[in-house]
Structure formats: C-alpha cells, structure tokens
Design a protein that fits this description.
This protein is an alpha+beta fold and 115 residues long. It has helices spanning 2-15, 18-30, 35-39, 46-58, 81-114, and strands at residues 32-34, 62-67, 70-75. Helix 1 runs antiparallel to helix 4. The longest helix is centred in the C-terminal third of the chain and has 34 residues, at 81-114. The relative contact order is 0.13.
C-alpha cells in the first residue's frame, strides 16, 4: 500500500510539469522517439530535457532503450494505471457520499412537506 502511494505521488509529481506532459503527449502520438527529436520543439537545453525524462522514467511513465549512443524513449502502457486506479477509488467514494447526501435531502424534503 505504501509503495503504491509513493508510485501515485511520483506519477502526479511527474505530470505536474507542463513540459513533461507535452513530452508524454508527443510520445503517445508517435509511439517512441530519440531524445534529440523529443527535445527539438522545446526551448530548453538537452540536459534539461534529460532531467525531465529521468523524472518520467522514475515515475515509470516511460522506458528508455539504448542503442549505441542513441537513447530511444517510449511510453510505458501501464504507467498511468496506479493513478487511474487511485482516482477511480476516490470517485467511487465521492459518488457514495453524494448518494447519501441526496437521500438525506429527499428525506428532509419529505419531512418538510408533511408538516
């Protein structure tokens, strides 16, 4: 449980940065790409892109494959799953709470109509 919470925290921390979200978006549409190609549209240095990629990699949102000096980056398909499960769990709790509130309001309205 604690390990899963750390993973969810790492995922949300990685997604908090707009540059990392744009990198993931590009990878989702291209499948994979070289680091230099991923860095091209950004106005930041290659070392800065590498730092962003390390954050995404430590959050297990991407994977890196090395072929000689070329680094190929690919999205990990299951990377967002822990965060999706966490959000679904929260949403289920919220739905339950809203259902209870709705029932309470209906009960209170029924009592008000009887007097």
């Amino acid at each position: 449980m604690v390990n899963n919470q750390r993973r969810v925290t790492a995922i949300f921390a990685a997604l908090a940065d707009p540059t990392r979200r744009r990198i993931l978006f590009r990878l989702a549409h291209t499948g994979e790409g070289r680091v230099t190609a991923l860095a091209k549209p950004f106005r930041i240095s290659l070392p800065a892109i590498s730092r962003h990629l390390r954050v995404l990699e430590s959050a297990q949102l991407i994977e890196r494959r090395r072929t000689g000096r070329t680094h190929i980056i690919r999205v990990q398909r299951e990377g967002l799953k822990p965060a999706q499960q966490w959000m679904a769990h929260c949403a289920a709790g919220w739905e339950f709470s809203f259902d209870q509130l709705d029932e309470l309001l209906k009960t209170e309205q029924g009592k008000g109509n009887q007097t």
